[in-house]
Amino acid sequence: MKIALIYTIFAVIATAANILSQDLSITLYQGNYAILLSIMVGTAVGLVVKYVLDKKYIFKYQTTSIQHGSRTFYLYTLMGLATTVIFWGFEFGFQALFHSKEMRYLGGIIGLAIGYYVKYQLDKRFVFVHKEAIS
Predict the structure, then answer these.
(1) For 15, what's the count of Cα atoms within 13 Å in the CB-facing half-sphere?
(2) Alpha-carbon gap, residue 11 to 47, rounded angstroms
(3) DSSP letter assigned to residue 37
(4) Residue 106 confidence (pLDDT) above 50
(5) Of 2, 102, 105, 107, whose CB is crowded by the most CB atoms within 10 A?
């Protein structure tokens, strides 16, 4: 139960980093692709924040080399692609339905919550696997 609470706190932190970076991006650039760009910026920021927290505190995972670290981040990102579809689907869907920044962000938060649950299951099985668990 403790791990679920910590994971939830980290998901909230990464979600806040995502939404805040989206809002900053929209403030800095308001051109034709502002919403798409802001969602991409938020996704990248959230990904890095969540990876660092998950790797160190949730899975207590240490990489053994630059190659191992790169492979781990690659797998983490790959698992995130499926969950990003969930997140973006909610965020873009809420934008299309409600046409407001607040509702778009609410959609993003809902999508991230669902996506993070799915992502934990994927990461546990495919990314942060210790060698002794493979044998």
Answers:
(1) 22
(2) 10
(3) H
(4) yes
(5) 107
